[in-house]
């Protein structure tokens, strides 16, 4: 018996705004049930003596130092812009907000 019903998969698809056919719902219900089973298996294998981790190897800060370096002036950067306004790049409005 499947732990995930077809109706549950249809509900999740509706929440995600994904339209699925009846055949796709049946197929996904079976696939998602398998995935849930695999995750449960991993949960059973996890030992109490192994601490939770996000990465198997220790990580160090890999970002570079934040140093001031010579760069373009504002005028030089805006010189190649198709349109500039008040010392800034001007781009077309995409939202109807004021």
Automatic annotation (TrEMBL):
<keyword id="KW-0067">ATP-binding</keyword>
<dbReference type="GO" id="GO:0050567">
    <property type="term" value="F:glutaminyl-tRNA synthase (glutamine-hydrolyzing) activity"/>
</dbReference>
<dbReference type="GO" id="GO:0006412">
    <property type="term" value="P:translation"/>
</dbReference>
<comment type="function">
    <text>Allows the formation of correctly charged Asn-tRNA(Asn) or Gln-tRNA(Gln) through the transamidation of misacylated Asp-tRNA(Asn) or Glu-tRNA(Gln) in organisms which lack either or both of asparaginyl-tRNA or glutaminyl-tRNA synthetases. The reaction takes place in the presence of glutamine and ATP through an activated phospho-Asp-tRNA(Asn) or phospho-Glu-tRNA(Gln).</text>
</comment>
<keyword id="KW-0808">Transferase</keyword>
<dbReference type="GO" id="GO:0006450">
    <property type="term" value="P:regulation of translational fidelity"/>
</dbReference>
<keyword id="KW-0648">Protein biosynthesis</keyword>
<comment type="similarity">
    <text>Belongs to the GatC family.</text>
</comment>
<dbReference type="Pfam" id="PF02686">
    <property type="entry name" value="GatC"/>
</dbReference>
<protein>
    <recommendedName>
        <fullName>Aspartyl/glutamyl-tRNA(Asn/Gln) amidotransferase subunit C</fullName>
        <ecNumber>6.3.5.-</ecNumber>
    </recommendedName>
</protein>
<keyword id="KW-0547">Nucleotide-binding</keyword>
<dbReference type="GO" id="GO:0016740">
    <property type="term" value="F:transferase activity"/>
</dbReference>
<dbReference type="GO" id="GO:0005524">
    <property type="term" value="F:ATP binding"/>
</dbReference>
<dbReference type="InterPro" id="IPR003837">
    <property type="entry name" value="GatC"/>
</dbReference>
<comment type="subunit">
    <text>Heterotrimer of A, B and C subunits.</text>
</comment>
<dbReference type="GO" id="GO:0050566">
    <property type="term" value="F:asparaginyl-tRNA synthase (glutamine-hydrolyzing) activity"/>
</dbReference>
<dbReference type="InterPro" id="IPR036113">
    <property type="entry name" value="Asp/Glu-ADT_sf_sub_c"/>
</dbReference>
<keyword id="KW-0436">Ligase</keyword>
<dbReference type="GO" id="GO:0070681">
    <property type="term" value="P:glutaminyl-tRNAGln biosynthesis via transamidation"/>
</dbReference>
């Amino acid at each position: 018996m499947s732990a995930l019903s077809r109706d549950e998969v249809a509900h999740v698809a509706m929440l995600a705004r994904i339209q699925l056919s009846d055949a796709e719902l049946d197929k996904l219900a079976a696939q998602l049930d398998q995935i849930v089973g695999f995750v449960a298996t991993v949960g059973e294998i996890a030992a109490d003596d192994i601490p939770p981790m996000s990465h198997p190897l220790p990580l160090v800060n890999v970002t570079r130092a934040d140093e001031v370096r010579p760069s373009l002036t504002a005028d030089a950067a805006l010189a190649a812009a198709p349109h500039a306004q008040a010392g800034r790049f001007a781009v077309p409005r995409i939202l109807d907000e004021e």
